[in-house]
Amino acid sequence: MGPKRRSQRNLCDGEDVVVKRARIEESGWTGVNERTFIAVKPDGVQRRLVGEIVRRFERKGFKLVGLKLMQASEELLREHYSELRSKPFFRGLIAYMSSGPIVATVWQGLDVVKTARKMLGETNPADSLPGTVRGDYCVEVGRNVIHGSDSVVSAQREISLWFRQNELQSWEDNCSHWIYN
Ligand code: IDP
Ligand code: MG
Predict the structure, then answer these.
(1) Tens of pLDDT along 112-132?
(2) Which residues line ligand 1 (CB under 6 A)?
(3) How much distance in Å is there from the Cα of 141 to the middle of ligand 1?
């Protein structure tokens, strides 16, 4: 399989077909339209943290534009974490992330990428302050319950990897003027 073909495969459901991936519109990713990819990892789902995590992002004022419960394929996970493929923990990371369903979400709002990373806490829960998801709900780096994109560029890459275009909703936010002035 050539590189072009591979890049068009829909890794989010394993179908070997050409599909419309979530479109990356550079101009639409600034200001209040910035988006990030947040996933509740298998341990977060097992430990019934989905509602708590979604609640935090909703109450903060971010807008939910995509959400699905899914079993991620190893192929998707290897692509998602491709930057870490030479790390000694890579195999364990793929095994962990494919050990059960994940809740994949996309959130939109002003500075959502940076703010979501603060809400997550540090990669190692031991370094994460109370009040962050990892600071409140986990102990070990290998079971840190949540993923969040680390930059706008990563967010664009990850959203297009995990979501099809028609899985992301554009909806009118009737309370946006209570969140933005
Ligand atoms: P991040 O999730 O905070 O962005 P990354 O460095 O991108 O952190 O690592 C991705 C994931 O790989 C982490 O969330 C964690 O699940 C896992 N991981 C990172 N470092 C280690 C490690 O030293 N041992 C085991 N797992 C790790
Ligand atoms: Mg990362």
Answers:
(1) 999 999 999 999 999 999 999
(2) 84, 89, 93, 123, 141-142, 144, 147, 150
(3) 6
